[in-house]
Specification:
The complex is a heterodimer of chains A (469) and B (210). Chain A has helices at 7-15, 39-47, 79-94, 110-116, 148-157, 182-193, 208-211, 215-223, 239-245, 254-265, 315-328, 354-364, 380-388, 391-397, 448-457, 463-466; strands spanning 16-19, 24-28, 31-34, 58-61, 98-100, 125-128, 142-145, 159-163, 166-173, 201-206, 232-234, 277-282, 289-291, 299-301, 343-346, 373-375, 401-402, 424-427, 442-445. With 469 residues, chain A is α/β, with parallel strands linked by helices. Chain A has a five-stranded parallel sheet with strand order 5-4-3-6-7, covered by helices on one side. In chain A, strand 4 (58-61), helix 3 and strand 5 form a beta-alpha-beta unit. Chain B has a single domain (7-181), classed as Aconitase, domain 4 (Alpha-Beta Barrel), CATH 3.20.19.10. The chains are: A alpha/beta (469), B alpha/beta (210). Chains A and B meet through strand 2, helix 2, helix 3, helix 5 and strand 8 of A and helix 3, helix 4, helix 6, helix 7 and helix 8 of B.
Chain lengths: 469, 210
């Protein structure tokens, strides 16, 4: 390949083992993460009579079904969930794969601990049987979710066949206003390009607003790439990335660090590199966002209103919108800042890192929750850091339910932390799909400060009008 | 019905003539195809009953009559003609397992979630992309014809339906081949083992921190 290359071009090229007649590339996979739901893939591998080809390139982490109240068998919501946990432990052992289980202080949500442990590094190809794998792209990696068959293929061969995706650059210009979080940035992007706006593409996020984000914030942005339909999202590694990685447990050390650094410095997209698609958003225009519907693209600034189906000219779209509002229990034209909530969830691979907890605690401090509000840290290390900073005490004093054990929890609800049918939840997670947080649950996606604001007011609220204490 | 253990004995897809159901909704996500509470279930004979569970049934198990797959001509559909962005959301291959186990072999839509699209090929489920306007015409035809049957021909890359409906579709040649022959992907990849070994030797030396 000649001419200026993008970050994506460079990573793709260095991992390409072969290309077949149909133009698909066989890519080498540097890192593979698996979790409880990888059992289908391990079964497929076993059925072939195979074991993991490169055990040291796979890490198994229990996060989906683990309890958030304690770390014993009794804390699990039923034996089936505990069995699923044990199955992962057994599959990892049978394949000589590192397993992070209960009681290990490093354990947490895969997409939090991969970067946190220095397991997800710039220039890597990273896969996991989970669509939010795009998160790790914030480290300057090509990282994407795959299904069980492909998970078993990676275990068996450490490779994947991929058609070359198209490339897209989303540039966020200007300066992010106060009280606008990384979550608001990505929700604004999804609203702009749509839930299928990135389909078939790998998105590179760029521009001054992205450059100014912390690594934690970048992880939030890349996390929701899949919610824009994108195969992956990525951000070029810079000083912010490199300083953050330095000293992480699995990050390279000494001479290897120097070699890695030289390599990573050369990864960013070169001026003039071509993208198949470009979108530009003015960061200065972004306001705190909430979703009102059942797709992440149904997002709007908090000072706007629930849309009115009557003003939708297309009959099919009109009936779909009516159906959505019916599911969500909302009235056309209702102010978004006038929607009462029944509960609040702060956590998930989108928003459970230390920055997120700090943002939420700043709003919770000295106030009191009017509705049940649960806070679940993303990892054991995030929990420890939050406790050292006294954030847990702020939450507890404000009447929030501080959970001591990390996990996916109420984002997907499979561990038993569910939103009840018909209940309305302001949630820092990534999906407002029908039934996502439990059958009949109504989800409004928000950032951590907005979630805390909803907790202390009992309704979706404009964090700019509340302010930190 | 397709293989339980994955694709080692995947059923090839060549041509399918079957009842097709119009599912006129955009963004049917994988949580709607397979609600999260079924994710932990093993793939046994119950798996087919999970498909679209919360769209098909009320919490008490009674049927929701408005849902298209509960309606008379479409109850035994094996093809779904859906709206934009079908299968968006999570990577759960269970969404494909439950469709396949319930007898579906083909979904036609203007676009798919990327991971779902890929998973479909790994399980002998053919995802066909047609333009939105063509889909709307096809959905209308299916709603108004007494025999809502269509034929999907992968060899010819052709969809034919009521009232001489005909549409050609494009598909990645490798994926087409995989479905036509029911190819086992791991066995296919192992044909490249020498290249993989060679790559690994050089790569490990160049990027030892991986």
């Amino acid at each position: 390949m000649t001419g200026p290359r993008s970050l994506f071009d460079k990573i793709w090229q260095r991992h390409e083992i072969a290309r077949n007649d149909a133009g698909q590339s066989l890519l080498f996979i540097d890192r593979h993460f698996c979790h409880e739901l990888s059992f289908h893939a391990f079964n497929m591998l076993k059925a072939r009579g195979m074991r993991a080809r490169h055990p040291s390139r796979t890490v198994a982490v229990a996060d989906h079904y683990t309890p958030t109240t304690g770390e014993t068998r009794e804390d699990f919501n039923g034996n089936d969930r505990y069995d699923l946990y044990r199955t992962l432990e057994r599959n990892a052992a049978e394949n000589d794969v590192m397993f992070l289980g209960l009681g290990d202080h490093r354990r947490g949500i895969i997409h939090v601990i991969g970067p946190e442990q220095g397991l997800s590094l710039p220039g890597m190809t990273i896969v996991c049987g989970d669509s939010h794998t795009a998160t790790h792209g914030a480290m300057g990696a090509l990282s994407f979710g795959i299904g069980a068959s492909d998970v078993s293929h990676v275990l068996a061969t450490q490779t994947l066949w991929q058609p070359r995706p198209k490339s897209m650059r989303v540039t966020v210009t200007g300066k992010r206003p106060a009280h606008v979080s990384a979550k608001d940035v990505i929700l604004a992007i999804i609203r702009h390009i749509g839930a299928a706006g990135g389909t078939g593409h790998v998105i590179e996020y760029a521009g001054p607003v992205i450059d100014a984000l912390s690594v934690e914030e970048r992880l939030t942005v890349c996390n929701m790439s899949i919610e824009a339909g994108a195969r992956a999202g990525m951000i070029a590694p810079d000083d912010t990335t490199i300083n953050w990685i330095a000293g992480k447990p699995f990050a390279p050390k000494e001479t290897r660090w120097d070699a890695a650094l030289a390599d990573w410095r050369a990864l960013p997209t070169e001026p003039g590199a071509a993208f198949d698609k470009e979108a530009v958003i003015n960061g200065g225009d972004i306001a705190p966002m909430v979703t009102w519907g059942t797709s992440p693209e149904d997002a709007a600034p908090i000072d706007e209103f629930v849309p009115d189906p009557a003003s939708e000219p297309d009959a099919t779209k009109r009936s779909a919108l009516t159906d959505k509002l019916d599911y969500m229990g909302l009235t056309p034209g209702q102010a978004l800042a006038d929607i009462d909530v029944d509960r609040v969830f702060i956590g998930s691979c989108t928003n459970s890192r230390i920055d997120d907890l700090r943002e939420a605690a700043a709003i919770a401090k000295g106030r009191h929750a009017k509705v049940p509000a649960m806070v679940v840290p993303g990892s054991g290390l995030v929990r420890k850091q939050a406790e050292q900073e006294g954030l847990n005490r702020i939450f507890i004093e404000a009447g929030f339910d501080w959970r001591p054990v990390a996990g996916c929890s109420m984002c997907v609800g499979v561990n038993g932390d569910l939103v009840a049918p018909g209940e309305r939840c302001a949630s820092t997670s990534n999906r407002n799909f029908r039934g996502r947080q439990g059958p009949g649950a109504r989800t409004h996606l928000v950032g951590p400060a907005m979630a805390a604001a909803a907790a202390v007011t009992g309704k979706l609220s404009d964090v700019r009008k509340i302010g930190a204490r | 019905m397709s293989a339980r253990l994955g694709r080692a004995d995947m059923e090839p897809f060549i041509r399918l003539a079957a009842t097709a159901a119009p599912l006129k909704r955009d963004n049917i996500d994988t949580d709607q195809i397979l609600p999260a509470r079924f994710l932990m279930m093993p793939r046994d004979e119950r798996y087919r009953t999970y498909v679209f569970r919360d769209l098909r049934q009320n919490a008490d198990g009674s049927e929701i009559p408005d849902f298209v797959l509960n309606q008379k001509p479409f109850r035994d559909a094996r093809i779904i003609v859906a709206g934009h962005n079908f299968g968006c959301g999570s990577s759960r291959e269970g969404a494909v397992f439950t469709l396949v186990d319930a007898g579906f072999r083909c979904v036609i839509a203007p676009g798919f979630g990327d991971i779902f699209y890929n998973n479909a090929f790994n399980n002998g489920l053919l995802p066909v992309i047609l333009p939105g306007e063509t889909i709307e015409i096809l959905q209308e035809l299916l709603e108004h014809t007494p025999m809502p049957e269509i034929t999907v021909d992968l060899e010819e890359q052709l969809v034919t339906g009521p009232e001489k409906f005909t549409a050609r579709f494009e598909i990645d040649p490798h994926r087409r081949e995989k479905l036509l022959k029911g190819l086992d992907p791991v066995a296919y990849t192992m044909q490249f083992e020498a290249a993989i070994n060679e790559f690994e030797n050089t790569y490990g030396a160049s990027y030892p921190w991986g």
